[in-house]
Design goal:
373 residues, 19 strands, 7-stranded mixed β-sheet
Length: 373
């Protein structure tokens, strides 16, 4: 899982922003939100323009040069400025720390544009195994001894080149951690339901058409499971598949009538159906960042969505939200709620001298300014 992330000179983060998902808190409630000392499920709150969306995009920057999703993702990142406009520097730096079982992998790199890495390095349990500088590079992973760097196009990340062109020793611990890291990155996803339904990162074949309802029709038992999913959140639609002459789509039974489902979708239901499309492919993901996940949801629905994704043991999820009603120890815990403000991000438990307990009303404390430094 992602344990720590640092970014500097990226969009509105002129100074280094440091997000740590490591926790040593021993809260006896909502323990499933933390796994192996890492926050598995978290909610980030903050004022408008504090950088919640930019944080998600910064975390997902890694997929641009390490995966084959680079074309769409780079275009997403390039639609506005990349480095901070107030800075005289044009180099953006990123540092990630991942934890796999008891092993730690740190990946650091620098860029001037979304597509091209200038420098990068990987450390596994403190040992540097890959170094890529402008002047030199080295690889110290078993199975990479015969790697021919003469054929390496330096516009491609050295890490990606190694992954694609070596047969690493799967019995070697460091190689295992490296391969686990690459698998994790290839299974990261960012999506939002605001400003249209947008996503980048890992895209399954069932989400390739651009037509959300058609994509659901292409999923195995997609419509039946969608109906069940909606019933679980108190939306009692009766759904069926029909061919409207342009392809498969979803219809809804309303009394004795069968009508197209799409015109019936409110903003909230549309966002929920979009979430369902990704939820049904949850086994394919390692990490999901859902930006403004509940912009169109009632509070009760927001809580149900968080609870549903929390139940997925092998999935790390970060939500961003403006809804203070979901700030509650009944749902998560003080080390799982983060405040992003003035280029810093900290869990609530680090923003007060009080020893927070389950009985504390986190929402009331937040509104009263208890967590604002």
């Amino acid at each position: 899982m992602l344990a720590e992330f640092k970014v500097r000179n990226y969009k509105n983060f002129r100074d280094e922003l440091h997000l740590s998902l490591e926790t040593a808190k021993n809260y006896e409630f909502n323990q499933k939100a933390v796994y192996n000392g890492i926050v598995k499920d978290s909610v980030i709150v903050g004022y408008n323009a504090s950088g919640k969306t930019n944080l998600g995009r910064a975390i997902m920057d890694i997929i641009i040069h390490l995966t084959d999703k680079s074309e769409k993702s780079a275009n997403e990142q390039s639609n506005i400025f990349y480095s901070n406009l107030y800075s005289q520097e044009d180099i953006v730096s990123f540092v990630y720390k991942f934890k796999f079982a008891s092993s730690l992998l740190e990946y650091a790199y620098e860029k001037k544009t979304p597509r091209h890495v200038i420098r990068e390095s990987i450390k596994i349990n403190g040992k540097k195994v890959i170094i890529n500088n402008e002047d030199s590079c080295s690889v110290n992973l078993k199975g990479s001894e015969t790697l021919n760097l003469e054929h390496w196009d330096k516009s491609i990340s050295l890490v990606k080149y190694i992954y694609a062109n070596t047969v690493l020793d799967k019995e070697d611990k460091e190689c295992q951690v490296f391969l686990e890291f690459m698998k994790f990155v290839n299974q990261m996803l960012w999506f939002t339901s605001t400003e249209g339904l947008r996503a980048f990162g890992f895209l399954c074949s069932a989400s390739a058409s651009g037509n959300m309802l058609e994509d659901i029709c292409n999923l195995e038992n997609g419509i039946e499971n969608l109906e069940l999913f909606l019933h679980e959140v108190n939306l009692p639609f009766t759904l069926l598949e029909k061919d409207n002459g342009e392809g498969k789509t979803i219809y809804c039974k309303m009394g004795n009538k069968e009508v197209a489902f799409a015109p019936l979708l409110s903003s909230g239901t549309r966002a929920l159906v979009f979430l369902y499309l990704w939820y049904m492919q949850k086994d394919s993901f390692s990490f999901i960042f859902i930006d403004e996940f509940d912009a169109f949801y009632h509070t009760d629905l927001s809580i149900r969505v968080i609870q549903k994704l929390m139940a997925e043991k092998n999935l790390q999820v970060i939500f961003t939200s403006h809804n203070t009603d979901i700030i509650s120890n009944e749902l998560l815990r003080p080390d799982c709620y983060f405040l992003l403000d003035d280029n810093t991000i900290q869990p609530f438990c680090n923003l007060t001298d009080k020893s927070l307990r389950e009985a504390h009303n986190l929402q009331k404390m937040y509104k009263a300014g208890a967590f604002h430094e």
